[in-house]
């Protein structure tokens, strides 16, 4: 399985370097991460709940030794 993972990483790395964009990049205010979205309390609670749920799923599967 490890060998297949390295083959996939190598092939995806090549494809990400060689691929051409179809559309020109958009100039979005705030750059890659938009901090203004977290001013909405509902969105902030949603993000925190998803993070805690994601961490909770894998904590039970892989207990600490």
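Sequence proposed for the structure above (65 residues):
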């Amino acid at each position: 399985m490890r060998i297949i993972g390295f083959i996939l990483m190598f092939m995806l790395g090549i494809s990400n370097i060689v691929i051409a964009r179809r559309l020109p990049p958009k100039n979005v205010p705030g750059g890659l991460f938009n901090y203004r979205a977290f001013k909405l309390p509902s969105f902030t609670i949603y993000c925190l709940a998803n993070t805690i749920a994601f961490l909770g799923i894998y904590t039970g599967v892989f207990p600490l030794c």
